[in-house]
Amino acid sequence: MTAPRRGGARRDGGRGRPAGPRGAGPPRGRSGPPRPPELDPSRQAALELLTSVRVRDAYANLALPAILRRYRLHDRDAGLATELGYGTLRAKGLLDAVIEACTDRPMIRVEPTLLDALRLGAYQLLRTRIPSHAAVDTTVELVRVEAGSRAAGFVNAILRKVGAQDEAAWVAQLAPSLEEDPLGHAAFAHAHPRWIAQAFSDALGPAGPTEIDAALAADDARPTVHLLARPGEITAAELALVTGGEEAPYSPYGVHLEPGSGDIGDLDVISEGLAVVQDEGSQLVALALAKAPLLGADAGRWLDLCAGPGGKAVLLGGLAQLDGAHLDAVESSEHRADLVRRVVDGLPVEVHTADGREAPLPDAAYDRVLVDAPCTGLGALRRRPEARWRRRPEDVSGLSKLQRELLTAALRHVRPGGVVAYVTCSPHLAETLGVLTGVVRKHPDVEQLDARELLPGVPDLGDGPTVQLWPHRHGTDAMFLGLLRKTA
User: Fold this and answer.
1) pTM beyond 0.85
2) What is the pLDDT of residue 127?
3) Domain shared by 197 and 215, yes or no
4) Which position among 102, 306, 375, 425 bears the catalytic label?
5) By residue range, what is the domain housing residue 252?
6) Chain segment 354-369, per-residue pLDDT in tens
7) 419 in the same domain as 301
């Protein structure tokens, strides 16, 4: 018998499978067609949001829900996409400074699509607990699919430099000196343009130097979601029970949900119209107007002079229904007026499409008038992540002129003894005290009420008579409230 050859007759490489005919397997050095990459849909959605904001000037909070639906993201996956997209937009200034320090070319020469991906990857490396290898690899794979291997190699090299040190080290390296320029240091560290940090510090008054770091940090944090339980439809306790949230500390109609709750539109209470998304600060200023003391009886004629998109009109309309009152709501944009009509459907609210400065409504006829004036929105930057890099200092002057004109119109419509609430979602002094004091100076028949008395239980409201809410003090947006009563 012939002895077997050394090593046996098998040609399967010892893997336990029968040997096939010679040449049956793939050629040496080849592995067959490559498998298509498995892209993470949460990161794809976040990157699409960045592109939408950059290319179409989209508002992130309006663009994201449709993106989440397109990628069929829910629960934790939707929460991850939201965190990555919103977080990257909020931190854009800081991220760009770090990326620029890691490149050997001017930022203007980096392709915008690659810059979006670099920002997304850098945010994961510096501001999340995502492992570095996962942050880099998933971002590089996104780029490889869209732009090819060469672009992916560039992104890979930059992100590895970004991840070589943590955020604190980058801040120490790139931010203005804490000792020589504490405001500039805080602005850089908390990803705010310097002019906005200065506006916050000015509005904080004497507390500015000591509180500015806390104010900017709170404004840069992931905000909780605030819901309004529609008066007469559901209580805050019931809303908290069905959503798993907590009743708000100050508003009797408010509920707070934790960040990362996914697409809020998926909640049944939202789709059924029992609740709407509304910051607790917005609820408080509307409630203050509804409770403000009048001279004479309340005849039940209320006016919302700048109603779009309808959040405060929902609350005032619900309270009007409980009190037997009627609310006229004015909005200059037809599209936004239609939004108001939808959300106040079934309430004693009539919506008028008109410029609030020239609305065809009776003079001296309303008991309560709300002027929720168009503003820079600096008080809601944590909820509008792209806004801090989109706004410019020169925006303030044009808006303050509009605000003065709207407040003047409101004083024309309010009856003697009636109350006007002047509200902005901005702490900028030119949009708050500057507008209010300038208009009051020209109207000797107006007196200021102490707005603090209409917000019972809310701490740290300052010296009055106006109120400035803050994220770091109250957990709300930075809403401003001034209450004016026309003397009889």
Assistant:
1) yes
2) 97
3) yes
4) 425
5) 225-277
6) 999 999 999 999 999 9
7) yes
